[in-house]
Amino acid sequence: MFENLSERLGGVFDRLTKQGSLSDEDVKTALREVRVALLEADVSLPVARDFVNKVQEKATGQAVTKSITPGQQVVKIVHDALIDTLTGEGEPGALKIDNAPAPILMVGLQGGGKTTTTAKLAKRLKDREGKRVLMASLDVNRPAAMEQLAILGKQIGVDTLPIVKGEDPLAIARRAKTQASMGGYDVYMLDTAGRLSIDEELMQQVEAVRNVTNPRETLLVVDGLTGQDAVHTAQNFDDRIGITGVVLTRMDGDGRGGAALSMRAVTGKPIKFVGLGEKMDALETFEPERIAGRILG
Ligand code: GDP
């Protein structure tokens, strides 16, 4: 088990002589520990390096406050810098879904939790915002995925677009749009196909669906435990499709949340929600404070 960062830094500073302000050397020594802690929390190396440099600039020369130890002081600077990096613009979890029916495009790789998250989010919009939501699965290559969405829809009391055999994803997207307008829905969610890895066919399909529906939100759903892979996936989808936000799933697992920091630092896209389990209520808005606490250990 790793010691938490506060304990580690306490140890480091105990060994250093007491001075009136944080010296270059003090800060450097402390930041070596911070870097190790970040890497242990699965933050990618370039992001950890940049982050530590940023903190170093802030910390060097700061007067040592009497009420807290130098170690605690560095932890506070690191904590504030984490919050800074993790905080996106706007209210976390706020979706742009005015102008009914608002399309939400759900994208991501197979197994990342896309279908589950589509249903969780639909339930949340229904329960908390009183929205009428229609869900449609475009995953024609995996009939089981289409069935799964229909089953979840029944379970949470959200309508799904009836499945028509042999229809292609674009036709389904168009039908969802028409059905949402005619049926007086506030939001329609499109659960796009997932694949094991990003390929050209998948991207073309998602792109075509995007062009037909002009989504208000395009949310990438990625497994938060996959660290660097999650960040690559986000970069790829953003370059090609343009995403408006990220949902990190499996944050109930024992990962330390470093993917969140790398994600924000590399893509600049807000993390809107985190998935905290398999149940339909296990979706929460992203809280930078919580993740910062987890990364610091
Ligand atoms: P998709 O292929 O991306 O549509 O993935 P699914 O929605 O089918 O999810 C794959 C598996 O991950 C299912 O067993 C889900 O119950 C599970 N899952 C999804 N989100 C979470 C989460 O936040 N935490 C946990 N523990 N499991 C999740």
What is this entry, summarized?
By secondary structure, the chain is an alpha/beta fold.
Description of the structure:
The longest helix is centred in the N-terminal third of the chain and has 17 residues, at 24-40. The chain is α/β, with parallel strands linked by helices and 297 residues long. The protein starts with a helix and ends with a helix. Strands 3-2-4-1-5-6-7-8 form an eight-stranded mixed β-sheet, sandwiched between helices. The mean pLDDT is 88. Strand 2 (133-137), helix 6 and strand 3 form a beta-alpha-beta unit. It has eleven helices and eight strands. Residues 108, 110-116, 194, 249-250, 252, 275-278, 282 line the site of guanosine-5'-diphosphate. Part of the signal recognition particle protein translocation system, which is composed of SRP and FtsY. SRP is a ribonucleoprotein composed of Ffh and a 4.5S RNA molecule. Keywords: Cytoplasm, GTP-binding, Hydrolase, Nucleotide-binding, Ribonucleoprotein, RNA-binding, Signal recognition particle. Residues 270-283 form the SRP54-type proteins GTP-binding domain. It is found in: Cell inner membrane; Cytoplasm. GTP binds at residues 108-115, 191-195, 249-252.
